């Protein structure tokens, strides 16, 4: 652990009162499920195959291993991380739209991690499973502060599902140039990036992070950071995608065939509920108050990285959700509460429509 972590303030103790439900949450959930259903249905009708309502396109599908080390400090040795050991894991790298778009429309990258054979009390609704899922996107904050805000953007997006792909490609090119200018000026815009302004960099070089979970006695946000030398070198590597609609996936496959990868799973403990809020997903928790500290390693041996067979196994045959979790890693905050019904509805729709049982 580094010096800053040693001197970090006392972590806030988890208590159910850290969450505050809003009156309109049930209505938001109903509308989210309906909007997502409409998007998934449109795509299923157009393609003949049901995909995820969002994050439909996978760019990497990996078999991996999660290693929990011995000797973590007590405040970090919580939940899954309380017991040193090795677990089988699966990883799915994706981009958020409901459509399988040309990769030159450069979007945020999602990473889902499923850890198998996890023991302990389960969060309600996931009692029949023994996996712990963690979901990440490569930005420090969510696109909206709450589920209502996300619903507003989703409704606008839903109206464009599988429409005007050429327009989206042109728009993405323009937005990437604007985002570059903002970055030159020292900033970045989560909203522009979500619309297609993500820099065209290698997705395996990204660091993935976002909304809070219970971390045993405490509360944390997690980060998945590349650490093997070859992965770290990808961080600013530009992809050249001319004439390659699946160029991101091809770059991932090229890399993983020879290199494999190693990531650190890191936890940032909440030490101040005002400056590190649970309910507002648009606030970045300051790392000077509490740094990300490594709680496990994720190891992937060299492997194909994507294939039709892997796609049947993981795209169609698996569902990742923050609500497939130990009680010790209960998802927290309004955005997380809204995700419970949304993920279940989306995965059940594709499982039923494709006649494919799901591994959770
Ligand atoms: C209210 C907010 C959100 C809603 C309604 C929502 C909804 C969904 C749905 C319906 C799916 C597809 C599930 C399936 O069919 O298996 C999904 C996938 C995904 N979401 Fe979210 N999401 C939300 C917030 C977030 C946040 C904050 C993150 C980032 C941490 C995130 C990351 C992901 C990722 C990485 C996937 C792909 C999972 C996979 O590979 O199977 N989502 N989301």
How would you characterize this protein structure?
With 360 residues, the chain is α+β, with helices and mostly antiparallel strands. The protein has a single domain, classed as Beta Barrel (Catalase HpII,  Chain A, domain 1). The protein contains nine helices and nine strands. It has helices at residues 3-6, 25-47, 147-158, 165-184, 190-195, 229-232, 247-258, 308-316, 334-354, and strands at residues 57-68, 85-95, 110-115, 132-137, 208-209, 213-215, 218-226, 261-269, 293-300. Strands 1, 2, 3, 4, 5, 6, 7, 8 and 9 form a nine-stranded antiparallel beta sheet that branches. Helix 2 (25-47) runs parallel beside helix 3 (147-158) and helix 2 runs parallel beside helix 9 (334-354). The radius of gyration is 19 Å and the shape is globular. Residues 1-6 have low confidence and may be disordered. Protoporphyrin IX containing FE (HEM) is lined by residues 32, 36, 52-55, 92, 94, 110, 112, 135-137, 142, 147, 150, 210-211, 319-320, 335, 338-339, 342-343, 346-347, 350.
Compose a concise summary of this entry.
The protein has 360 residues and is an alpha+beta fold. 31% of the residues lie in helices and 18% in strands.
Count of domains: 1
Order of helices and strands: HHEEEEHHHEEEHHEEHH
Helix fraction by DSSP (H/I, runs of at least 4): 25-40%
CATH hierarchy class name: Mainly Beta
The low-pLDDT segments are: 1-6
Q: Report how far apart the termini are.
A: 33 Å
Annotation field: number of helices: 9
Using only CA atoms, what is the Rg? 19 Å
Number of strands: 9
Query: Which hetero ligands occur in this complex?
Result: protoporphyrin IX containing FE
- The outline comes out as globular
CATH superfamily: Catalase core domain
Classification by helices and strands? alpha+beta
Average pLDDT score:
90
The biggest sheet, with number of strands, parallel, antiparallel or mixed sense and barrel status, is: 9 strands, antiparallel
CATH fold-level name: Catalase HpII,  Chain A, domain 1
Q: Strand fraction band?
A: 15-25%
Architecture per CATH nomenclature, i.e. the level-2 architecture: Beta Barrel
């Amino acid at each position: 652990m580094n010096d800053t972590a040693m001197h970090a303030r006392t972590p806030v103790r988890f208590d159910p009162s850290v969450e505050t439900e809003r009156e309109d949450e049930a209505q938001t959930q109903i509308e989210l499920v309906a909007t997502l259903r409409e998007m998934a249905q449109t795509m299923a009708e157009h393609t003949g195959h049901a995909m995820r309502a969002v994050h439909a396109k996978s760019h990497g599908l990996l078999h991996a291993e999660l290693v929990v080390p011995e000797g973590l400090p007590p405040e970090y040795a919580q939940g899954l991380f309380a017991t040193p050991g090795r677990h089988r894991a699966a990883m799915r790298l994706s981009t958020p739209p409901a459509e399988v778009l040309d990769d030159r429309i450069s979007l945020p990258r999602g990473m889902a991690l499923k850890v198998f054979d996890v023991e302990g009390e389960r969060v309600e609704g996931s009692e029949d499973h023994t996996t712990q899922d963690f979901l990440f996107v490569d930005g420090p904050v969510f696109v909206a502060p709450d589920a209502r805000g996300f619903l507003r953007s989703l409704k606008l997006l839903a109206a464009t599902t599988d429409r005007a792909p050429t327009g989206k490609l042109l728009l993405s090119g323009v937005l990437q140039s604007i985002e570059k200018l903002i970055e030159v000026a020292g900033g970045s815009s989560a909203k522009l990036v979500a619309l297609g302004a993500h820099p065209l960099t290698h997705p395996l070089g990204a660091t993935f992070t976002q909304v809070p979970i219970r971390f045993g006695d405490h509360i944390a946000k997690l980060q998945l950071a590349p650490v093997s030398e070859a992965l770290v070198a990808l961080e600013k590597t530009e992809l050249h995608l001319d004439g390659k609609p699946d160029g991101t996936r091809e770059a991932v496959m090229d890399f993983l065939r020879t290199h494999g990868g190693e990531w650190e799973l890191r936890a940032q403990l909440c030490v101040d509920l005002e400056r590190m809020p649970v309910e507002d997903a648009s606030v970045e928790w300051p790392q000077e108050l509490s740094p990300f500290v490594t709680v496990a390693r994720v190891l992937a041996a060299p492997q194909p990285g994507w294939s039709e067979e892997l796609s049947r196994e993981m795209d169609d045959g698996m569902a990742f959700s923050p609500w497939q979790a130990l009680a010790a890693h209960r998802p927290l905050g309004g955005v997380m509460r809204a995700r419970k019904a949304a993920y279940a509805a989306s995965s059940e729709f594709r499982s039923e429509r494709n006649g494919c049982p799901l591994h959770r």
